[in-house]
């Protein structure tokens, strides 16, 4: 494997201005400003904190103060939500420049984005929208990831989506598509175990088959989140990737299987609405940490990338 | 593997087929999506419709909490839904969204009984801009004292990045403040005109009333008019305008970043 293409390769030592906080083998949580006081009052260790990049793209003010405070003592993961990597149109250059400035300013331990699109022409839809898996879309996605990685000077982790519809025009499976992206661009992968479970339920495939086919050696981070239940047109279960509750038991089981196979990969508890008290979020992260600790040191397919 | 050159050159069109119905309930489910094994995709696609609309309504609600508190959630969400369909965001930065919302409120049929509501929204939009504005040390109180008295009329201020002013024919700032507090407010006479200064000298955004003449004075200063000209404009409107008190209050509020003397090299 090309050293430059290593998943989420961190900046070189001489380029660093901020303290380095290792993220290997750790559980983390979404960083919400309403938790800041409780987090600061809490003892160490607290794991890593993940932020949505777009929330820190203002010029200044309290968001940057909060992130600077958190970044000083903890590893931070920068998670882009709106780059629209999965769309066919060119990336928005001003947005990529803002993203690059954040990477330079905060020197995050992990940097990730989504296999999805959110902008069409000039309209931003504020959702992670799905794409067909074809040779043409693969080429576009790879071009976009190359462009992002070139701009920020390091590899990103690309997250697998949760989806509710399929595209009959698709010519390859999601896992084949993702594997091809990782091969062509050298990017790492962010495996969202809840997304696997949601999509598997929604489209009637086996989550275990998906994982068996997923390039686990490229995984540099795992996401866990809660989902909600609805019904599809036939009255059957349709799961919604809602990030508004605790991680489901079935997803915990899936997670333990993943960790058993790829070792103690940094794991995020994602919680974005109906946000609970810090103690509840911390409790979910502690549950993930307990599983990580059980499998610590077992990762054999890849060296640790966090130091 | 060499991609087929024809396929490679083709720009995939899936968003053009998928996107239009997201914010238009009158459109049918796109014809390029399906459920698994021949299942329908109407409810499945509606998940995306719902995600888009609800998340954008929530974005407007978080930018305009006082407006929502005044109108109630049901009224607000209906109004926001109309606005989203008419004017969806064009930037992935949601804190930049909703700049056209105050004008939309002003023209909104069902909000005509609350003619001050659009100005409350304008204050909330300015509040969020001040919140995200660049971090700059505001001009200190002592800076003006260092200017020789004979040069005071030539002083030009540069505004602090967070500073905004607004004039309302209604008591928009009082209504705004009353609806950003938890506790219930007393009766407000909405017909009292208010001029407003919004600043963020440090962590917290502050919304203040300006004294009579203060808005004219400050608007001139923020357009880089020298102090003498700004003062003359204010005094023409309000003969007993207290220049010293106004400058001190505005500086204290963090309205300015720097000052310099016009014509000074």
UniProtKB/TrEMBL annotation, chain B:
InterPro entries xref list: DUF2063, DUF2063_N_sf
Putative DNA-binding domain span: 17-105
Gene3D superfamilies per the UniProt record, alphabetical: DUF2063
Protein name (Swiss-Prot/TrEMBL): DUF2063 domain-containing protein
Organism: Chelatococcus reniformis
């Amino acid at each position: 494997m090309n050293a430059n293409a290593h998943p989420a390769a961190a900046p070189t030592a001489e380029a660093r201005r901020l303290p380095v906080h290792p993220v290997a083998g750790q559980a983390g949580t979404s960083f919400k400003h309403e938790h800041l006081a409780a987090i600061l009052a809490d003892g160490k260790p607290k794991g890593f904190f993940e932020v949505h990049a777009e929330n820190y793209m203002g010029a200044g003010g309290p968001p940057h103060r909060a992130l600077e405070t958190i970044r000083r003592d903890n590893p931070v993961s920068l998670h882009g939500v709106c780059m629209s990597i999965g769309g066919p149109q060119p990336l928005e250059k001003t947005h990529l420049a803002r993203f690059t400035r954040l990477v330079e300013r905060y020197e995050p331990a992990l940097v990730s984005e989504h296999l999805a699109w959110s902008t069409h022409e000039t309209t931003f839809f504020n959702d992670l929208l799905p794409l067909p898996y074809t040779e043409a879309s693969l080429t576009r996605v790879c071009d976009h990831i190359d462009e992002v990685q070139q701009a920020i000077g390091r590899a990103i982790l690309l997250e697998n989506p949760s989806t509710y519809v399929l595209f009959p025009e698709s010519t390859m499976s999601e896992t084949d598509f993702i594997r091809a992206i990782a091969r062509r661009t050298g990017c790492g992968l962010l495996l969202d175990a809840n997304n696997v479970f949601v999509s598997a339920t929604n489209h009637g495939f086996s989550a275990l088959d998906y994982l068996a086919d997923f390039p686990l050696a490229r995984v540099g981070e795992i996401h866990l989140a809660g989902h909600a239940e609805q019904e599809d047109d036939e009255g059957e279960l349709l799961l919604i990737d809602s990030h508004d509750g605790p991680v489901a038991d079935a997803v915990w089981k899936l997670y333990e299987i993943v960790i058993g196979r790829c070792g103690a990969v940094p794991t995020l508890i994602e919680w974005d609405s109906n946000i609970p008290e810090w103690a509840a979020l911390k409790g979910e992260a502690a549950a993930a940490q307990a599983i990580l600790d059980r499998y610590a040191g077992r990762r054999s397919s890849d060296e640790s990338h966090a130091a | 593997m060499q991609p087929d050159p024809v396929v490679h050159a083709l720009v995939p069109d899936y968003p053009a087929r998928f996107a239009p119905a997201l914010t238009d309930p009158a459109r049918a489910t796109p014809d390029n999506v399906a459920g698994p094994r021949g299942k329908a995709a109407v409810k499945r696609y509606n998940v995306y419709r719902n995600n888009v609309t609800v998340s954008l309504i929530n974005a407007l609600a978080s930018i305009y909490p006082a407006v929502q508190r005044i109108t109630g959630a049901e009224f607000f969400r209906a109004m926001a839904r109309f606005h989203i369909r008419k004017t969806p965001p064009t930037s992935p930065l949601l804190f930049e969204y909703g700049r056209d919302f105050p004008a939309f409120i002003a023209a909104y049929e069902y909000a005509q009984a609350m003619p001050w509501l659009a100005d409350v929204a304008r204050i909330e939009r300015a509040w969020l801009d001040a919140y995200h504005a660049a971090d700059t040390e505001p001009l200190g109180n002592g800076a003006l004292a260092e200017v020789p008295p004979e040069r005071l009329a030539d002083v030009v201020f540069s505004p602090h990045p967070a500073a905004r002013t607004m004039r309302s024919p209604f008591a928009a700032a009082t209504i705004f403040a009353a609806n950003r507090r938890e506790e219930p407010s007393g009766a407000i006479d909405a017909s009292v005109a208010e001029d407003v200064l919004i600043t963020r000298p440090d962590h917290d955004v502050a919304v203040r009333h300006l004294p009579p003449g203060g808005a004219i004075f400050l608007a001139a200063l923020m357009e880089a008019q020298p102090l003498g000209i700004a003062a003359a404009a204010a005094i023409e409107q309000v003969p007993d305008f207290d220049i010293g008190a106004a400058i001190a209050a505005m500086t204290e509020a963090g309205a300015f970043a720097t000052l310099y003397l016009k014509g000074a090299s």
